[in-house]
């Protein structure tokens, strides 16, 4: 990877040990010739791995003896022609050294919001092209002053070849709302913080896009932001000044702290503390809060000046992609923000904040974007020809692969409109150049109506590989863990196109990277109104009740205040006749149905909301479970829930019993499939497994049954991993 200070590190190491020779980039990575005493060279080789700079990751060191040439001194030599296209690093949070300078009144970069060095700062978001060199970044327009240039050119300086290197004399500046360019004295960031303290909503330009911010404890400001943003229920992310401030908001174990403080600085979802000083409108009805730490110098200054936790949510209206171009952001966010905190370093690649949580002591990425992209992923079965995989539709990403490496693109959002499609196309073109991949094989979902499928089919002169959606989920998890053998997969999500043309989503598969067979599935029911059923969970309650009870299934008491008898009758007829009601085995929709039956939510404002709220209310102290057989026919389960609700059992208890039933049946179904296939490895994946209770309880049962479990860590279990899974399948099939 370039721009992470590896060559200067080698240079310094050589100088320390008095080794002579050179270091340069070549087509295999970094090549070093080192000459010195045998012990010294051994030590040198060892330190290459153990002391590498924080952003570099040394995958392998291969050493071989060559003839002594009697060189003196050690140089950083020019890269070999045909060296790999610059492997661009991910954006990294401000390092400790830079932070110390940022708050040191005697430093020339005191309070400079764009301080960075070889170990930190923007990378992926500012790279326009290759090679990774200042003219090909959005820093091209800033000519370094003499002092910055001297740092940049000095191999012993911690800013040697730091492409975004800058200072207040020569670099980008922050300013408020367009009219003034202030620096020193009451600076722009200080002014912004004062406005926030006074209750304003600010649009703030960051690393990968614009955020909207206000004080998290200010109920009036948060309410205003929510109504202006038309974001009815989705939780807002928070930025806390430091670990101590984050600890006053959420419960943080060691694993959460490690995630929170990692250079990627994701939003970490963790259990909200009862006395967290946060307006309730930040995350209505949620058990968790999403918290991150400052990751750019501008954020550090802003949080220090504001003196309290801020809401920092993506700068967009409702479900649009996050704004990142200045003109577009000004136009779109003007109606929402009272003022703008801007800067003049352009953002080339839009990236949202990454989102992660800890489950069973392991990190789980829910959205892979800023700070994590474009780090490469391994392909256990490398591809003979370069591959492009186009992903699915929701939480869309793409993936490019060459040899045994895959690059998964940043989270693009739901690929359902012209703007996200443009981001998708631009992203693919950008990655093709950055990583020098000219796809000869293009993998895609089987769904004929996905925009990603149309894009794949329109690529000229390539070999197309269709990959079944749930097989891609399974393959993504196997590939991430480097597993090439067969496994059982319980793949639960909202919807994926099945090989029989129906909507799958509650699948027990047996497969490997090449192929997968369906070994079981949730009993099929109707999806009344198609996609509308995902937004109106009560429709799925109707569908499951009609499936279980037949035509006499009436409107349950828990839904009477939200759904009219006539609507219920009309949907029941769709279910009976199958008109506008395709078949589905979707587990996500079963969770919706149960949430609606419990009266938790009849109408959802975003995908998965009902299931998230159902999980949040579960009374985990209740140890009982409903009966659900390993053949996953959930009709008796739905009737048992109805009976429980009729005798006044609380939704919290019903939720817990339902989660336990699905967990137990899933583990048993996996065990049965595993024993039939003669294997002991199980994968749990699909968006439904973002449910912490379900994942934890299923894992406990699998463990008790003596099965080994694999769960994704670096990529999401949701559709954000589909593209990578497709690439792994396409590579394996060749
Ligand atoms: Zn730094
Ligand atoms: Zn300068
Ligand atoms: Fe899926």
Give short descriptive properties of this protein.
734 residues, alpha/beta, DHBP synthase, Nucleotidyltransferase, domain 5, ten-stranded mixed β-sheet, five-stranded mixed β-sheet, 22 helices
Explain this structure:
- By secondary structure, the chain is α/β, with parallel strands linked by helices.
- Among the domains are: 6-76, Alpha-Beta Plaits; 174-343, Alpha-Beta Complex (DHBP synthase); 368-483 and 716-733, Nucleotidyltransferase, domain 5 (2-Layer Sandwich); 525-661, Tetracycline Repressor, domain 2 (Orthogonal Bundle).
- The protein is built from 22 helices and 24 strands.
- The strands form five sheets. It has a ten-stranded mixed sheet with strand order 4-11-5-6-10-7-9-8-12-13, with helices on both faces.
- A hairpin with a 4-residue loop joins strand 5 (202-205) and strand 6.
- Helix 1 (6-17) runs antiparallel to helix 2 and helix 19 (635-646) packs antiparallel against helix 20 (651-677).
- The longest helix is centred in the C-terminal third of the chain and has 27 residues, at 651-677.
- Residues 178-185 have low confidence and may be disordered.
- Residues 144-145, 147-148, 166-167, 169-171 line the site of one zinc ion.
- One zinc ion binds at residues 144-145, 147-148, 166-167, 169-171.
